[in-house]
Structure formats: structure tokens, C-alpha cells
Design a protein that fits this description.
CATH architecture of the largest domain: Beta Barrel
Helix content: under 10%
Number of domains: 2
Structural class: mainly beta
Strand content: over 45%
Order of helices and strands: EEEEEEEEEEEEEEEEEEEEEEE
């Protein structure tokens, strides 16, 4: 245990540098710059009977160029004919002034067994006379509803008291771990403040009966750092003592049908995040609750 909050060095936000521009010479987009792009670089859909997905593709031009763009589907862990079926069988999208956005459509094929989340992608094969935009590929994730923890996944509205600002609410999302079916990852478990605009994920383990979550203290968020420093999750008690060891137990609330309705956190602990060596980002006092959206 260590008392960090009382002596933490506040994170100093870097100042933004504004690029100069000549307002008398604005950039002009013309059809020489026309491009086609996927509206989103990634999409997800839940594996379910009758589930379908429409991927939007837009050709950006001034006059509404007439052009045909071909695409290809690339198998990943999800395989065409087994996990999904392409409905836009022509493999071609036709654009003009009246149809600047077109859609690539798929049907999802449930397999009735737990495989974990699986993915495939869609890419441009030929863009004709226009360029391919930055979003020239869309990766699709099929969310496996056969997962034993499927009822737990989704979005939750959290409520608590922030040490700096008082009562607060925020949204966090639960997803599966591809390698461990008794572990979940929680994006935005504590929402980060003090000028930090990147959400972090932290893991929790789930008991076999799916009645409790256990969130270990002292874990660093994977794949997210600040100037090479880890962003670490700690526990926080009502005396503002911070715990770098141990764990927080969360009760999973369910209705009579077994649907997850929300979460009740151990009233003795809140959540505290800091950038290792820089200072704290967020301190949520004990008394956190969450409702499943």
C-alpha cells in the first residue's frame, strides 16, 4: 500500500502547436483529388441467426464521378461460406452523382459453437480512375455469442464520485479475451481525465458461476503508454490510500432470467490510475456501481 494521491505530481499537458496558414489561399478540392474509401476501417457484428452487415463505401468527388470500383473479401479467422456469406456477389460498386455511397452486404452464419471472436477483411481490388483513400480496408469482427461469458459483454454506464470533480458517470465496454474464456477486458474501466484522451483496457477474471469479477491492482494497460511510461491501475480507499497489490471484487447482478443487469463494486475500494513516474490521471472514490445498457 502507498499513499500516492496526497503527494502525486500532477500531469502537465503538452501545449498544442498551431500550424500557420494563409486564409487567402484555401486548399481547393477538385475531382483530380477524388477518392473512394470505406467509411470505417473496422466494424463488428454479433453472431446470430439472420444477422446481416452492410459496409458503407463512399466515393468523394465534387461533380459526382461515375466510376465502378471492385473489391475482394479476404478470409481471416472467419472463413467465407462457413462463418459469413457475401451477398454483394458482383464484387463491384457503381458510383455516380446520385449514388455517392454504396454498400457491401454480408450475411453472418452462426456455427453454434464457441470459437471466440473471429475476423475477415474487405479490400479494394481496382479503384478505376479514382484514388484509394486512407481507409482502403475494412476489418470485420464477428462477436461470438456462444462464449460462456457472452451475457457479460457489452456496454455499461458507470456511476461514482471523482476525487477532483465530484459525482460522475461514464461508459465502459466489456469484451472477451481471445486466449482465456474466464477473463474479460474492460475498456474505459476508469475514464481518464487530466488531459489524457486515450481510453485504457484492464482485465478482470470471472468465477465459474459468473457471479463475481476480480480486478487485480497494479496492472498496466497493454499497448497504451505516455512517453514510454505505463498507465497503471490501483485501488483506492476512503482515506485516499492507494493499493498496488491485492484486488477488487465486483458482484455481477442478474435478473430472474439470468440476464446481467449491472455491477456492484466492493464499497471499500475505488479506482485510481496514474502514469508511472508522472502523476495521477483519475481517482474514483469507493462506491462505484454500473448498469448494463
Amino acid at each position: 500500500m502507498k499513499n500516492i494521491i496526497k503527494y502525486a505530481i500532477a500531469l502537465v499537458a503538452a501545449g498544442a502547436v498551431m500550424a500557420s496558414c494563409d486564409i487567402n489561399k484555401p486548399d481547393i478540392f477538385d475531382d483530380a483529388d477524388a477518392f473512394v474509401a470505406f467509411d470505417e476501417g473496422s466494424m463488428s457484428i454479433t453472431e446470430a441467426d439472420g444477422a446481416s452487415l452492410k459496409i458503407p463505401v463512399t466515393l468523394a468527388s465534387v461533380a459526382g464521378i461515375e466510376e465502378s470500383v471492385s473489391f475482394k473479401v479476404v478470409d481471416g479467422t472467419a472463413v467465407a461460406g462457413t462463418n459469413f456469406e457475401l451477398l454483394t456477389v458482383s464484387g463491384v460498386l457503381n458510383f455516380d452523382a446520385e449514388n455517392r455511397t454504396q454498400y457491401i452486404e454480408f450475411e453472418i452464419l452462426p456455427d453454434g459453437k464457441f470459437t471466440g471472436d473471429i475476423t475477415f477483411s474487405v479490400e479494394f481490388a481496382n479503384t478505376g480512375s479514382v484514388q484509394a483513400g486512407a481507409e482502403n480496408k475494412c476489418t470485420v469482427t464477428i462477436l461470438d455469442t456462444d462464449h460462456p461469458l457472452a451475457a457479460l459483454f457489452g456496454t455499461y454506464t458507470f456511476s461514482g464520485t471523482d476525487y477532483d470533480t465530484g459525482p460522475t458517470t461514464w461508459t465502459a465496454t466489456f469484451r472477451s479475451d481471445p486466449d482465456d474464456e474466464n477473463r474479460v477486458w474492460i475498456l474505459n474501466l476508469p475514464a481518464l481525465y487530466n488531459g489524457f484522451d486515450t481510453a485504457c483496457e484492464y482485465y478482470a477474471t470471472v468465477d465459474d458461476a459468473m457471479t463475481t469479477l476480480t480486478i487485480p491492482f497494479g496492472q498496466a494497460a497493454p499497448d497504451v503508454q505516455y512517453q514510454g511510461a505505463d498507465i497503471i491501475l490501483y485501488g483506492l480507499d476512503s482515506q485516499l490510500d492507494v493499493y498496488d497489490e491485492g484486488s477488487l471484487t465486483v458482484t455481477i447482478n442478474k435478473d430472474q432470467a439470468g440476464n446481467v443487469t449491472g455491477l456492484t463494486f466492493d464499497p471499500n475500494y475505488g479506482l485510481y490510475c496514474e502514469i508511472d513516474g508522472f502523476g495521477y490521471l483519475t481517482a474514483i472514490l469507493p462506491g462505484i456501481t454500473a448498469t448494463k445498457d
